[in-house]
Every structure is written in structure tokens, then in C-alpha cells.
Write a structure and sequence with these properties.
This protein is an alpha+beta fold and about 200 residues long. Helix content is about 40%, strand content about 10%. It has a four-stranded mixed beta sheet with strand order 2-4-1-3. The chain is globular. The protein starts with 5 loop residues before the first strand and ends in a 15-residue tail after the last helix.
């Protein structure tokens, strides 16, 4: 089908002793668009996704501020997938495409640090699109922030995240502030390339 440009699939643990992180185990095929995209639960993740070559010519490359080893340790897949959706393309989740992920994180500390990194990355992602007046992302950022604040001020049993609401909120805000600072200083730092056209 030449109209399909973005596909991802299941991600399960290679080592059952690893923490249940970065897993996608849904058994039903699904399609995601701008209308159904949820930054807090992206449809496919970086270790199991593929794209038609032409999408890179249209969307650009991954933003080099995001991802493991980069200043913002997560959300590179979230950022790129949203760029694809914003150009009117759908993302397909196909459960028969399986990757066994050997991420190696097992301790509670590693689990907490990973959760904090994901939230920090999402805060940076929100900031990137808020300054572009991207209305769906602004709405989602406000919804998530309101939910965290409510959970912090009125503790309840619904909270299932590995870190408490106050730490969650700090990571979210810190990620946003960090993105603003790096985006303002990045063009003037030696060795840092400018964004691709899609990320400018």
C-alpha cells in the first residue's frame, strides 16, 4: 500500500527479569492520526518503527536534541511521530511485527530514572510545540498538567506512575524549561548543527 508511510509493532522483553518498560503488547491492529495521538502513550516506539524513505524528505530527520545520549534523554520517537501525523499521515500499529527489547533495566532506581527521563522528554516536546502554537499539543499539555496537579493536591489510588506527582510535575516543567534554554543557545554552540528544515 503506497499510502502507508509509518509502521510500528509489538515490543516485548527479551529478558523477563527486566522492568516492564518500553513495552507495547497490544494484539489488535490500530491506526493513529492527529485526532487520536496521545503524547503520553505513543502508538509505536523507537526500537520498532519504520518509515517510507520519502517521509524523511518531507518531515526532515530526527531532532538531535532528543533521544538517548542527547541532552534530552527521551521523546525522539514522540517528536518524530507527531511531525509525521501533523503532515496528515497515519501511523499503523501492526502486532505481528515483533521486537524483543533487551533494555537491561531491572532495579527500582533504574525504573524511576527511566520514568523521570520520559517525563522530562515529554515536557521538552510540549515546549517545542507550544512555542509553535500547536493547538492539539497545547491542549494535551494542559490536560496532563491539570491531571498531575489534581493528583498532587488530592492524592488518590488512580496514580500509577513510578514517581510521585510532585516529582512528575518537576520533571515535566524542567524538560520544558530545558528545551527553551537549549533551543535559544544551540545555534551559537560550536559543534551543534542547525535543525533540519522540519524542526526549525
Amino acid at each position: 500500500d503506497p499510502s502507508i508511510v509509518a509502521v510500528g509493532g509489538r515490543v516485548e522483553l527479551l529478558n523477563p527479569d527486566d522492568a516492564s518498560l518500553s513495552v507495547r503488547s497490544g494484539q489488535a491492529r490500530r491506526t493513529f492520526t492527529v485526532e487520536t495521538f496521545d503524547p503520553g502513550a505513543i502508538p509505536v516506539i523507537g526500537c520498532n518503527m519504520s518509515f517510507a524513505r520519502r517521509i524523511f524528505e518531507e518531515v526532515g530527520m530526527f531532532d538531535d536534541l532528543f533521544g538517548p545520549g542527547d541532552p534530552i534523554p527521551a521523546a525522539e520517537d514522540l517528536d518524530f511521530l507527531w511531525s509525521v501525523c501533523r503532515r496528515g499521515y497515519a501511523i499503523y500499529y501492526c502486532p505481528h511485527l515483533l521486537v524483543l527489547h533487551n533494555h537491561g533495566r531491572q532495579s527500582e532506581q533504574e525504573k524511576t530514572e527511566s520514568a523521570r527521563g520520559y517525563i522530562f522528554g515529554r515536557g521538552a516536546f510540549y515546549a517545542k510545540y507550544i512555542v509553535r502554537f500547536d493547538l492539539p499539543i497545547i491542549k494535551r499539555a494542559l490536560y496532563e498538567t491539570r491531571y498531575v496537579l489534581r493528583s498532587w493536591l488530592r492524592p488518590n489510588d488512580d496514580w500509577k506512575t513510578a514517581i510521585p506527582p510532585a516529582a512528575y510535575l518537576r520533571a515535566l516543567v524542567a524538560g520544558g524549561c530545558f528545551w527553551v534554554w537549549r533551543s535559544l543557545t544551540r545555534p551559537f554552540r560550536a559543534g551543534y548543527p542547525y535543525d533540519s528544515p522540519a524542526n526549525q
